Amino acid sequence: MTQPLHTNATPSRLVVMDIDSTLIDEEVIDLLGEASGHGDLIAGITERAMRGEIDFKQALRERVALLKGLSTDVFDRVLSQTHFTNGALDFVDECHRRGWKVGVVSGGFHEVADSLVERAHLDHCLANRLMVRDGRLTGEVDGDIVTKESKLAALRAWARSDGVPMDRTIAIGDGANDIPMILASGIGIAFCAKPVVQQAAPHSITQRDLRLALPIIDAEDR
């Protein structure tokens, strides 16, 4: 788990978001799948995992195995294909203007996530890493796989380190593995989410504009 990237005064809130299909429009694993020639197969597994139909660890291992042999040059190519969700950077900037911290948790990969974190000036990041040998992907994950449990643990750990009570945290995500952190946070928001997430979350945004989270948060502060 990474340490905070910035050190400011104790914030009044902590926002934790998923990356794929939340902070950005794309699913990075699907873009890697297209580069590997297994795009449709990997996208299908992703969709089932996001709906909560199959175990996330199993699904990730299956997809990563199909990436075996890809050159690490693929990360720059994939990064160039990603787009921040409408309103994402404005939302992060407004959170920081209010003195809040913002982190991301992802079943995606640090090899792409770290550049997104730097560009968006985020404070925390937890993601998977891909194993590389001789400049090529081995088809394995390097270290523990990020799961719904580790996303929740990251939310709690960052809240503790930032001095933010859990009832002042905000969690935003779209997939089944975001549900535990959404339910444990003070304000849980499903963002253009799968039906199972919309049903579970206290709040739901159905338009792809992350700035729409601000009125939900402000309403809770009234």
From TrEMBL:
Domain of life: Bacteria
GO molecular function: L-phosphoserine phosphatase activity; magnesium ion binding
Active-site residues annotated for this sequence: D18 (nucleophile), D20 (nucleophile)
Obligatory cofactor(s): Mg(2+)
GO cellular component: cytoplasm
EC number assigned by the record: 3.1.3.3
Catalytic activity: O-phospho-L-serine + H2O = L-serine + phosphate; O-phospho-D-serine + H2O = D-serine + phosphate
One Pfam family hit: HAD
Pathway(s) this gene product operates in, as recorded in its UniProt entry: Amino-acid biosynthesis; L-serine biosynthesis; L-serine from 3-phospho-D-glycerate: step 3/3
A biological process from GO: L-serine biosynthetic process
Top class in the EC scheme: hydrolase
CDD domains per record: HAD_PSP
PANTHER family on file: PHOSPHOSERINE PHOSPHATASE
Family (UniProt): Belongs to the HAD-like hydrolase superfamily. SerB family.
NCBIfam families: HAD-SF-IB, serB
Name the record gives this protein: phosphoserine phosphatase
